[in-house]
Each structure stands twice: as C-alpha cells, then as structure tokens.
Specification:
There is one protein chain. The chain has two domains: 309 residues, Zn peptidases (Aminopeptidase); 149 residues, Alpha-Beta Plaits (2-Layer Sandwich). Helices cover 37% and strands 21% of the residues. The protein contains 15 helices and 21 strands. The two termini are 18 Å apart.
Amino acid sequence: MRARIGLVAAIGILASGIASSTAIAEGPTSREIAERLAGAIRFETVSPEDPADFRGEPFEAHEAYLRETYPRVFAELALEHVNEYTLLFRWAGSDETLRPALFMSHTDVVPVSDAAAAAWSQPPYGGVLADGYVWGRGALDVKTGVIFWLEAVEALLVEGVTPARTIYLAFGHDEEIGGTQGAKRVAELFAERGLRLAMLFDEGGFMIEGHPLVPDRVTAMVTTAEKAYMNVRLRARGVSGHSSMPPRSTAIGRLARAISRVESHPMPARITLPVREMLEAAAPYQPFGRRFAFDNLWLTGPLVKNAFLKDDLNRALLQTTFAATLISGGVKANVIPELAEALINVRVLPGDTHDDVLAHLEAVIDDPEIEIVGERWGTSAPPASASGPAFQLAAAAVLAEIPEAVVLPGLVPGATDTRHFGEVADEILRFVPMQLEISERSGAHGRDERILIEPLARSVRIATDMVRRAAAGE
C-alpha cells in the first residue's frame, strides 16, 4: 500500500506537476482567503435542535455573500436549492462514461449561548482575524470546507479548465442536527436520478502537525471510515413516596447502577481495516520496536490493541463507545421519583451493529426493571480502502504540495453527512485539507474555535489540485 501511495504521487507529479503547480502557484494569499472565510463566519447560520426555531435569513444572507465572493462559480455552474437552503452545484463534465465526484461541506454551525460567548476571546460570530488565526464558529466545523471547495472551483474556472468528469459541490444547511433536510435529500436526489458517484470528499480528516504517530511531520488524515451514531435511552420506574421512608432501591439508584455497569463493561475491542491501514502506513516513521509491531499486526495485534486501550482517544478507535450525556428524574428534594431516565450516546465501530449494541446493553445491565430503548440516527457508509483511487487522488494532491508529508488513512470517531451516501457512492473519504495544530483539534463546537491563517493558501492549493485531478478523470 505504501508503495502504491508513492507511485501515484510520482505519476501525478510527472503527468501534471509542471502545469498544475504553475497554474495554482499564483493563487490567493493566506490573508485573502482568511478574509473571505472571516466574512462567511459573520453570518449566524445556526441549525437549532427545534425546527420551529430555524431562521432562514442568515442562510440567505450567507448565500448572497458567497455569490458575490465567487461570481464565476455561481454564474457558470448549475445551482439547485435543496429544501431551500442546501446548495447543490453541478459542473458538467465532457465524458459521460466517468462517474461524478462530489465535494461536500456544510454551512450550518452549532449555537453559542450568551453565557458561553462571554468566555470567548473573540466574538463567536465576529469573524475576527487576530493573533495569526481566523476566529469564530465554522472556522473548523466547517465553513472552511465551503470556502476551500469554492476557492478551488473559482480558480479552475478562471484558468479555463473544462472538466472531463462532472463535479458536484454540496453544502448542507442542517448537518449539525442530522442532515435529514440537506445531505440526506441530496443523496436521495442522486438515487432518484440514477446517479452514482465515483468518489465523495467531506469533512472529518485534516492535516495536523504533532500527530502522536508522526509528531515531526505534517500528517494528512485522509480518513476512510467513520463510526455510526446512535442514542439509547435507559428508563427505570419506581413508586413515588416521601423521601423519609425510601425503598431499598429507587428508580434513580437502579439507573445509576445500570450506567455504572455500562461504563465498566465495554464492548470488545477490535483493530478494524481503517485502523490497520493507518498503522501500516505510519510504520515506516516509527522507532524499530513500534515499526515491527505495526508491520506485523498478525502477530502483535493483541499487544497493540492493549496499548491503545490505555488512552481514551486511541480507545475510541478500537471500540464501540458509550457516554452517558443526559439524565433526568425527580421533581423535589423530598419526593421519591416515579421515573428516572438517562441518554447514552453510542458511537458504533464499523462491524458492530445497532442490534449488537442493544444485546450488549441487555447483557451487562442485566436488570429486567431497566427499559432499554434504541433510537437510531443512521448507519455509516462502508469503509473505503487506502489503496482505492479516491484515497490515492487525495494523497497525490497532498504530496505534490508537501512532499515530506505523511498521508494516513483512519477512522473518524464522530459522524458526518457521508453516512447518507453509502448507497450512491463507490468511495467515501473524509478529508478537507485544512491544517491544525495538535492543540486545536478539539476546538470544533468548543470555546474559541479558530484556524491558523498562515497555512490557508497551501490548503487551498491542495483543495484545488484535488478538484483538478477529479475533474480530469484521475
């Protein structure tokens, strides 16, 4: 696999290196891109949990801003509004035998409460450029992707590029609440129209300095799989009464014991294909002992697995995880409650199923008085392969710009809009070539969300090369 990555990169450089690098070398500066990203951040395009609270005006204003900022894209590509606010662009290719490629992102962001906003260093929707960063909601999750793909297509249109392969851009408006009105509907439209994608790129992977496996190089995480998202509700019922005469076991007590059992009895750990390919790709950059272990997982798999299980971040790559995130019960300090509930957020490892999750919970809770109700949100698309053409295309674009970079496949612990496209896409990758510092990777949804300005021009050159290669039919 590693040899194939190097070969594809070499072929890409030889075949298109002079023309491609010359064409995109004189692109916009990092500061110019930062200013355009900052402008997009200033629109409060929040997708609320309650649809009744949705406000369309910020999305309309945001689209108007993009239309003014990227005039060639809006003038020359066909634009379809899906459920009013999701933008679906089509750049028609000349070769109908080539299946299309889709580059995705989303325009919606999570809200920031007034109390949380007061703790930010910069206003969350201010789009401030300061201290070497662009600050605000969407800087990481993920208006950056919207800007990168639009920058790429705008630049190629200015060059006069005519695609052989049809290129789609899709920017959903409700990814943060499940994507049912945006990305899911786009996938349904493709199915209804008999379209099947050769490849799809969306958020989830990025470039990072200080990656734990390769700390001394820029590492591009072109992730090939993601976990599925699932909620499970636990309910315990009791008999209300005065707290001065409690029963031996209350609804809250039983619920607490159930949660404790779930936390202390995880599902079995496994090294899945995406993680195996990540370790194998990282092996050449490891000290001898670790390199031997990663290159010989057939022998060392149990040792590697045990080492990963000691760290919460790595553990999430090997197991279906359970997190108790919401709990409720009781109405007054001196009243025993009739009902107590807890919500368990589950991230399902590829290969495990929703039925596996429920069977595991039934077995480890082992209490007939605890009701277990699964609430599905969706399944994940099948894992792509690091030897597939979509991964190779992204790797070649990264290595053409950063020859010393390391390109790793892997697994996204969260869920993205790609889960809606499993039936209409050959290969699904999660990679937007934005560059983060290791300390900033948890900034999405958090306080002081921001992205470095300095690497933005390089990121856009990689994004442009990805779209160029896809459009050329690579």
